[in-house]
Write a structure and sequence with these properties.
single chain; alpha+beta; Rossmann fold; D-amino Acid Aminotransferase, Chain A, domain 1; Dna Ligase, domain 1; 3 domains; six-stranded mixed sheet; five-stranded antiparallel sheet; GSHS_ATP-bd; ATP-binding
Length: 339
């Protein structure tokens, strides 16, 4: 059953081999009417949510030119489904989520706007992942608390990361024996004390910054996997390898990756997790897994289809979009018959 689908991406000079080219191409290949919209052009015109967009007339090729968005300020509401695959500039974040929420009141989303806002972060993993499948985790902007936490157990290591960052930026491993521990935790929480002394709070205002601190899981170096869940189906992903001189396994910072293989226990767990996530309006997500622990969830533009293709030569995108649409129909979010 063909649908009319709007895929919101960030306009770029050239398409890369990522979701911005792979997912619209797969939807088009499956026979749907697909439009690409620039998420940074969202607005409201006389109570109608609009964006600049164009209709897809062929599959995209990595390295190809970004298409001209031929329809300016066109309605974003006249669709059966919206798939959000991009964020926006930090200065526009509040308006961005308010506009997405308004649009989502009128059109179903693959991942609900509320889920994109509240659950696509390190702070709220406990809302959707069972406690027994989470490493010990803290979110705080209190340097003294976090420094005391790390200091309290000399045999334990911790990972500190921005609550809303990604792609390996500002991620550090700290422990009580690390001479950089205090400096790294101070930097992660905004260097508030130093900045207040240097400039004065009256001048710079609030300097504290939130950070997530998560217990370091030793088996993460040998068993970290990115798994793409489409509904409750683990459709693709890749095995991640840590370099000897880096604790990060992000492919974006040069880590090696290979074909994904799941154990029976991992597959059962992921299918259960997928059902929990769908209850929260999440139907397409990248799960960073070091079984039995979930390290992160990524739903804005999760890499997986692209790295599987690079590792194996296989294109799993049609399977992924079919699974997403099937799950949305089963959940009653997408009609069986196109309107």
């Amino acid at each position: 059953m063909p649908y009319r689908i709007l895929v919101l991406v960030s306009e770029a000079y050239k398409f890369k081999l990522d979701n911005h080219s792979i997912i619209p191409s797969a939807l088009y290949r499956e026979g749907h009417e697909v439009h690409i919209g620039d998420i940074d052009t969202l607005g409201v015109h006389d109570s109608v949510v609009v964006c600049d967009r164009m209709r897809v007339s062929e599959e995209f090729v990595a390295g190809g030119e970004f298409p001209k968005l031929s329809e300016s300020s066109a309605s974003a509401e006249d669709f059966d489904l919206v798939w959000v695959l991009a964020g926006t500039h930090p200065e526009a974040t509040t308006d961005y989520f308010q506009l997405l929420w308004l649009l989502n009141r009128k059109v179903p989303f693959v991942n609900d706007a509320t889920a994109l806002f509240y659950l696509n972060a390190k702070s709220n993993l406990g809302a959707v992942v069972p406690a027994e499948n989470l490493p010990a985790s803290y979110v705080s902007n209190d340097y003294e608390f976090l420094n005391a936490l790390v200091e309290s157990d000399p045999g334990r290591s911790w990972v500190t990361k921005p609550t809303n960052g990604g792609c390996g930026q500002n991620v550090y491993v700290v422990n009580d024996q690390d001479r950089n521990r205090s400096a790294l935790l101070a930097a992660a929480t905004g260097n508030a004390t130093s900045r207040y002394v240097s400039y004065g709070r009256d001048i710079i205002g609030m300097a504290k910054r939130y950070t997530a601190v998560q217990e370091y899981i030793p088996n993460v170096r040998s068993n970290e996997k990115r798994v793409i869940l489409a509904g409750d189906v683990p459709v693709t992903g890749f095995l991640r390898f840590h370099r000897d001189n880096d604790h990060r396994a992000n492919a974006t910072v040069g880590a090696r990756f290979e074909r994904l293989t799941l154990t029976p226990d991992e597959e059962v767990f992921l299918r259960r997790l997928g059902k929990r996530l769908m209850d929260h309006g999440i139907f397409y997500v990248g799960v960073d897994l070091a079984y039995p622990y979930v390290i992160e969830l990524n739903m804005e533009n999760p890499g997986g289809l692209n790295y599987h293709r690079r590792a194996t030569g296989e294109d799993k995108s049609s399977e992924a979009v079919r699974a997403v649409l099937s799950a949305l129909r089963t959940a009653g979010k997408l009609s069986q018959d196109r309107r």
